[in-house]
From TrEMBL:
Residues 1-24 form the signal peptide. Pfam families: Cytochrom_C (PF00034). InterPro entries: Cyt_c-like_dom (IPR009056), Cyt_c-like_dom_sf (IPR036909), Cyt_c_1A/1B (IPR002327). This is Cytochrome c family protein. PANTHER family: CYTOCHROME C. Keywords: Electron transport, Heme, Iron, Metal-binding, Signal, Transport. Residues 26-126 form the Cytochrome c domain.
């Protein structure tokens, strides 16, 4: 099996096994504070990429598809991930576990409540 296909399969299996988290209960104000660590690489503004792609329009978008951003890993593009609260949670916890060849140099957000807060913020800020 090719590496990209294995990565995609691993991502799907990991996401399917992810525990449910109370994203709806997340605190967007705290999530905005947590997003400060993401700002070095990402924005929530439409069309504004940095080292990483804009997160504007994130929810419902397929991973690796921002047309104005060309520096995606093959594994992320082939992952088949569609960004939702349920798929973001394990990715934000440990990006390299979900997409091993990800170019995102971020260790992850360990606390489930912090991920819920960050996801709540992203849901509001990326529309």
């Amino acid at each position: 099996m090719r590496t990209a296909a294995r990565t995609a399969l691993a991502a799907v299996l990991l996401l399917a096994a992810a525990p449910a988290t109370g994203w709806a209960d997340g605190d967007p104000a705290n999530g905005e504070k947590l997003f400060r660590q993401c700002k070095a690489c990402h924005t929530v503004e439409a069309g504004k990429n940095r080292v990483g792609p804009t997160l504007h329009g994130l929810f419902g978008r397929k991973a690796g598809t921002v047309e104005s951003f060309a520096n995606y890993s093959e594994g992320l593009k082939a992952s088949g991930i569609q960004w939702t609260a349920a798929t973001l949670d394990p990715y934000l916890n440990n990006p390299k576990a979900v997409v091993p060849d990800s170019r995102m140099a971020f260790a992850g957000v360990a606390k489930p409540e912090d991920r819920a807060d960050l996801i709540a913020y992203l849901e509001a800020a990326t529309k």
